[in-house]
Amino acid sequence: MSNTILSATDFNQILDDYAGRTLSHTPVTQTTSNITGQETLSDGTPINIKCYVMKTNQSFQYQEYGFLEKGDVIGLFKVADSVVINSKITINGEVYRVRESYNVPGVFDSSTTATYIYTVGNLFLVS
Fold it and tell me: Which listed residue, of 30, 31, 65, 96, carries a Cα 20 to 30 Å from 17's Cα?
């Protein structure tokens, strides 16, 4: 038996009705040169999405494997918005890059295929 605490539909409804903030998400495509191995990021078409963002204090968190730098902003995004590493997020004219991104499952039982509720993004200010 699986225990679903919150579904993606529930989370999306909360963002749409109560806590969501509209901002610009620019998907980014990463290409690697066959000759030099240099990676290039190309911006896609910006779209408006709803998410929940929280500014953080710039600091470091201690983990077992060392210190990890926390971002300037933590964002909770709809899974369908496909916010991934290197995506650009524009909030009030400030541009952020997603440096860490992971999906949060809504089913807490190993016998069931996980469905994801939302995506957490660790964002760093770039301009």
Answer: 96
